[in-house]
Amino acid sequence: MIVYENIRLALFSLKANKMRSLLTMLGIIIGIASVIAIMTLGDSVTVTVTESMSSIGANNVTVSLQQKTSEEDGEDEASTGIEFGQDEDEQQPTQSDLITSDMLQQFCDTYADSVKAISISEAVGSGEIEEGELTSDISVMGASLGYFAANNITMVEGNYFSDREFDRGGMVALVASQVVDDIFGGDTDAAVGSTIQVAVNDKYYNFVISGVYEQDNDMYSSYSFMWGNQPSTFYIPLRTAQDLNHSSGFSQFTVLTQGDVNADDFAVETERFFNNLYRNNREFEVTAMSMSSIVGMMEDIMGTITTAIAFIAGIALVVGGIGVMNIMLVSITERTREIGTRKALGAPNSSIRLQFIIESIVICIIGGIFGIILGCIVGMAAAAYVGVSVVPSLQSICISLGFSMAIGIFFGYYPANKAAKLNPIDALRYE
Length: 431
Known about the structure:
Layout: H1 2-16, H2 18-56, E1 61-67, H3 101-110, E2 115-119, E3 121-131, E4 134-143, H4 145-150, E5 155-158, H5 163-168, E6 172-176, H6 177-183, H7 188-191, E7 195-200, E8 203-213, H8 217-227, E9 232-237, H9 238-245, E10 252-257, H10 263-277, E11 284-290, H11 291-313, H12 315-334, H13 336-344, H14 349-386, H15 394-420, H16 424-429
Helix pairs in contact: 1-14, 2-11, 2-12, 2-14, 2-15, 12-14, 12-15, 14-15
């Protein structure tokens, strides 16, 4: 009953000083809204990225060639299989260091029961399709047959490359639906079988369109928002890409495993197999990681980044709490005679203290609710604008609401304790 009465008094006090109460809540609203918006956007991006990676296949194993770590670096700096940048001192592999087709064939023969396919891609460069006055920006990439299965590339019209084109190389290509829209006015029938001129790295080539694949428009729009307009991928046979690049080996590929294979254990086996072949190579070694492990690492990294940014935004909550304490001190000064009257009538210190703590909590909770609503709206709008799946952060909502209550108690206690310790005689004489 006492708590209910104090809540009623708190609401009455807020109503009597509307503008002051709103300004007091503003710091809490902004702080909580910032945290929730950032957490919502971060969680949305994380889910979209991990789902995209998982769609490739959680059971797949990524194999990459990396420079050996020196003994002086220690075990803590051992390779993780994921690179986010390139060291200036890092040595680049030569053609003799690369994984060869014979190595891959030997690997597939050794683990024939475990390997479904090998996904390999090789970038050739950016270019442009030219058809009269019509153009379409593209990124030329060579791909193996397993690449299309690993990345769930679906054909709209036409066919994938033939075995002969994969094995010997051919001037054929798979184009995105975006290219068909740009060059052929959306007519896929007219596109398939047509010969187009492609400018790549200041050289011109003629390719025959073998098929049209379905472009992931959601992912395309996300990339366009973050990195500007992105060219569509122009797929050619892997052998053709190697001929254009004058290359003969591979630095990275993905193994599509059979459904009953433990990807983590197979990654260890794969790494052991290739490093046995590389035992005489002093500069490079092979690392292998399952896609599930990579996804887990990405989730941890994105979660850490999001939490760090949210923590910085949470400083606004502390600032808001200081504002609450300041206003409560002003309120006590204004209501000194009221406090003196209550104490003269027999109100204990605990009752006075509880009244002002509850007033502080009520301010923070109301500000927290408005902050949660604003944060959800901003976060969901930002996620939708970026083009990622909107995932409201329920955890951040609960934490923010609890934190706002904690702020109310923490920053409200000092003013409340000060009010409780007022001498009733001095309080009644206060003017």
